[in-house]
Amino acid sequence: MTKSIISCGVYLPYLRIKRDEYLSALGRCSAGMREKTVLDIDEDVITMAVEASRVALAGIDVSRVGVVTVASTGFPYQEKAQAGTLVEALGLEKNVLTAQHSNSTVSGTESLLTALSLLDQTEQPYALVVVSDAPVSGPDVDLEHGFGAAACAFVLAKDEPGLVFEGVYAQSGEAMGLRYRLPGETDIRDIGVKTFAMLDYNETVKGAVTGLANKLGRNLTDYRHVVLHQADAKSATALAKKMGCTDEQIKEGVVYPYTGDTGACSSLLGLCRVLESACAGDCILISSHGSGSGSQALSFCLETPVPKSVVFEAVLGYKRYISYIQYLKQKRSI
Amino acid sequence: MENVAIIGAGQTKYGDFPGMGVKELFAEAYLEMLQSVDRGLEQQRIGAAYIGSLSAGSGFQLGQLAPLLMGHVGLPHVNAVRIENACASGGYALYNAACAVASGKFDMVLAAGVEKMRDVSSNKGRYWLGVSGDTEYERLAGSTFAGIYALMASRYMHEYGLKREHLSMVAAKNHCHAVANPKAQFRKEITIEQAMQGVPVAHPFNVWDCSPTSDGAAVVLLCNAKIAKEFTNKPVYLKGFGAASDYLAIHDRDSMTRLLATRRAATEAYKQAGVGPEDINFAEVHDCFTIAEILAYGDLGFAEEGLAQYLLEEGFTRADGKLPVNASGGLKAKGHPIGATGCGMASEVFKQLRDEAQEPSRQIKNARYALSHNVGGSGGTAAVFIYQRGDA
Amino acid sequence: MSAHISIPMYQRAVPQRYRLTGKLCKSCGKINFPPKAVCKYCLQGASFEDVRLSGRGAVYSYTVIAGGGAPPEFETEARCKGSYPVLIVELEEGPRVITQMVNPPEEGIAIGMSVQAVFRKIYEEEGVIRYGFKFSPA
Ligand SMILES: [Zn+2]
């Protein structure tokens, strides 16, 4: 049985703040995006998840969805399953198999892998994977400057033409990385040792990517697109180049400059973007990364282009810029 | 069916009375009503009491308000009941009292209303004001009570070319009327220009388009018309009384530029009274928001729907016009103590039709028929009354 | 203090609030939203079939609730935005709904403009997030 992504959906909040706003308000900005997405006061990861899912499910018979997996580093409840909200909002059958992944930015790819597995446990042909994230910290935390918000959703199918899943390779270990969050807190803490964190990022992502290529008997150059986790403006591109990738392979999957750090969404959002221009026969590699847990690299090959109901560029273009003061209001900081 | 007469009426001034609660307000109105009965009253003849109130002092007395109030004025054993239909609570108290007399069951019945709105925080006040619509949908769409009427105003403007100025004409007119009314909460004239410049509340409304929150009470004494002359030579006959409902939620109604409840209540009242809108000499209508008075012109038959604004342009409904509307100042400036409003209108009409308007300058001359109109919420309920002077 | 809609009461309306489930009258074929026990169009039918509304519609009327006048449960939202629009939307399938508008166009709202349902947080009570529909420009 082959399993393929047959459709995807992206949701970006309408509100954006430009990096320049940070510069004029604070005199500096520790993140290198051009602009980033900002949650409205009545949005959270669940509302974004529903919107992205609705795009992905357009034209699909929702009664044939047998699996829902959902991922975010910051769900609105510490205890309460989140998939139920999606089931009701999307009108899915009540007997869907659900799974929820959190605690790390690697949870996005985890939820995709879980959905692939759970598909074996349902008679239904479709699984929905929703990754929605909006990392949060106080305005005085450097990491916060880059934090954006986004959701993406994928419909996986058994034996239907689309973006065929080829395999996965993971790296795990005690890798603290740059960030963590304690129980009961909403703000992410920054360990502040950037070079140490970079070392971990480079080693684990490289381990996953090269491991995957070896496992599948491929060279990285065989991939039309290589999309790595983007927690900042430079690391992903620098690492990909170090591993021998060309600009052509990297550039289309870069989303950080427009959205900021979208946490668990990062590489999956990049995947949605490259799917727009991918042609039949193209291979695509994505790799996630999460503090404390490592990296997962996934390989896909495009059999039939994935239909697009909403164009990524249009989603990027639907926006309104806000001031830094308004941004603090949106965050309920003032 | 028996004929119904009003032989006494009283009301407090409307406004902010930090020293008075619902009991004190009710008692003041009741005692003024007693004094207004020309030949005096043996209180024991009162057979029943209907008392309108929405929140009974912002919820402090959720149950059995009526016996509480009646016990406070020496009538502990009278059959008493609280009536609630939001802003039309007082009107429905009057309507039920009228039905009770008309049925022949009682010879004499009290209709009253009371509201204590001013001793709560503005937060809590906003809470109370937002729960008389379809809370589950209207309130949870973030709308306020003003917001619902604002939606009607927007639609009216869209359909009929109503202008912002027309809304302000209602405000300016009613504020001007209230200046001479000693019972009114706001006795200050405002210009149309001022009325257009208030602090925004809910587009297209600013603060001058909205009635205030008020404390107040009103009491009206009804009796079988057969015995009215035992008490006075100048009874006021309640010739017609109608009440009707509509979908509570504004989104369930076909039209947002008319209140069907008012139309049906008016039809019933006119029919019973045997008169038409052209016979009415003055009216007290429910102007909780400026648009509400404009809607009322159409719904009560004073103008065609969509042409109501021209009555304002012509000054037709000013105190010195052909059909004075809200010569008391209306809810807008006289004040709007929710449960009291419907009975307060009756009290105003009673005094006007007996040529006893407290300030002679505001006496409406040569009036034979008057109408009062009380609406619950955004039109979920409405009651309309037609009065005839009894000394002619 | 806010209008109390209990958790069970809210939950009973989840099909309406989360995905605009209307009730198709088996007698006259019209769609009731929100649901009624007896059809509001033919005043006869009491048996219905669930239908999912498209969420597409047009602005029938609108207002903008000024911050200071917002109900207490919308105070945070009002404070953040200064004011927020509320619409009556006429849905493609016929029923009208009252709803908040998100992302209002900078040139202003116009009666007749096309709108589309979106999924948002409505408010929180007892710490529980009440999700539901709002409408955005289509
Ligand atoms: Zn029907």
Describe the structure.
The complex is a heterotrimer of chains A (334), B (392) and C (138). Chain A is of the alpha/beta class and 334 residues long. Chain A has two domains: 3-161 and 309-330, Thiolase/Chalcone synthase (Peroxisomal Thiolase, Chain A, domain 1, 3-Layer(aba) Sandwich), CATH 3.40.47; 163-302, Peroxisomal Thiolase, Chain A, domain 1, CATH 3.40.47. In chain A, 31% of the residues lie in helices and 23% in strands. In chain A, the strands form three sheets. In chain A, strands 5-4-6-7-1-8-13-12-11 form a nine-stranded mixed β-sheet, sandwiched between helices. Chain A has a three-stranded mixed β-sheet with strand order 3-2-14. Chain A has a two-stranded antiparallel ribbon with strand order 9-10. Chain A starts with a strand and ends with a helix. Chain B has 392 residues and is an alpha/beta fold. Chain B has one domain: Peroxisomal Thiolase, Chain A, domain 1, CATH 3.40.47. Helix content of chain B is 34%, strand content 18%. By secondary structure, chain C is mostly beta strands. Chain C contains three helices and eight strands. Chain C is globular. In chain C, 43% of the residues are buried. Bound molecules: zinc ion. Zinc ion binds at residues 25, 27-28, 30, 39, 41-42, 45 of chain C. Residues 25, 27-28, 30, 39, 41-42, 45 of chain C line the site of zinc ion.
Structure described in brief:
With 334 residues, chain A is of the alpha/beta class. Chain A contains 11 helices and 14 strands. A 9-stranded mixed sheet of chain A has the order 5-4-6-7-1-8-13-12-11, with helices on both faces. A 3-stranded mixed sheet of chain A has the order 3-2-14.
Largest interface: B-C, 38 and 37 residues
Q: How would you classify the helix and strand content of chain B by structural class?
A: alpha/beta
Main sheet record of chain B: 9 strands, mixed
The CATH class of chain B is identified as: Alpha Beta
Strand % of chain C is 35-45%
Low-confidence stretches of chain B: none
Bound molecules: zinc ion
Strand line-up across the major sheet of chain B: 3-2-4-7-1-8-11-10-9
What overall form of chain C do the CA principal axes indicate?
Answer: globular
CATH H-level homologous superfamily name of chain B: Thiolase/Chalcone synthase
**Per CATH, which architecture of the domain at 55-137 in chain C?**
Beta Barrel
How many strand elements of chain B?
A: 11
